[in-house]
Each structure stands twice: as C-alpha cells, then as structure tokens.
Amino acid sequence: MTAALTAATAKKMLSVESRLFGTLHVAPEACIRFPRGIPGFWEERDFVLLPAGADGLFWLQSLRQPALAFFAADPFVFVPEYAPVLPSDLEGKDIAILALVTLPRGRGGRCTVNLKAP
Asked: Which sign does the torsion angle of CA 95, 43, 47, 7 carry?
C-alpha cells in the first residue's frame, strides 16, 4: 500500500473517544444509527459496534459519550432456539438482533440478558 493511499484512507476514518478503549479510529460505514435512540438513552443515536474478543460478544460504543458503552451479545449464539417476534415494518429488511448484557456488580456474579424486552 502506498503512503498516499494510506493517508487517504486515514482521512476517511472517524476518531472516537472511548473510556474503555482510548481513541478509536473507525470507518464511517462501521457506525450504526438508532433513529429513535436506545430505551433509556433516547438522545444517544450514533454508535460503533466493536468485537469483544469472543464469538457473539460485542461492545456498542457511543460516538458522543466516551463513558457510554454497552456490552452486547448475539442471542442466537447463546440461545439457538431464540425466536423473537419482529414488528411487521422490519420484515424483509436487513437487520441485526443483539441483546444488551447486564454485567454483575462484583466478581463472581452472573451476567444476564433480557430476551423478552424490546
């Protein structure tokens, strides 16, 4: 790769500050927009999805708030029989389904995932 091509690629990357990961450089097409926000975080609409190191686990990092990152899981990896009922306006669209994980307060606690909530 030439230096000019590398510089052009770097210009297209977004710099995102993260309390957990430091400064991230992400491609604009890697960003995810939630038009209505996330329940409980309605003003937060723009995120980047980062692999968490194990299959089916991710970090959903806010592009605006460095301290806001959600731990997320692909429910189908952990509960293969999971069969969510989707709203009719999503049928036929290219979507991904992730569940936000609740982390325990202390060591040795269990992580939980709510597969019934929206």
From this structure: positive
pTM, entire model: 0.80
Note down pLDDT in tens along the chain; length 118 residues.
445 545 555 568 999 999 999 999 999 998 999 988 988 999 999 999 999 989 999 999 999 999 999 999 999 999 999 999 888 888 788 888 999 999 898 899 999 998 987 5
Cα separation, 118 vs 115, in Å, equals: 8
Q: Which amino acid belongs to residue 72?
A: A
Cβ atoms of residues 58 and 48 within 8 Å: no
Look-up of token digits 């290219």 = 94
C-alpha–C-alpha distance, residues 85 and 114, integer Å: 14
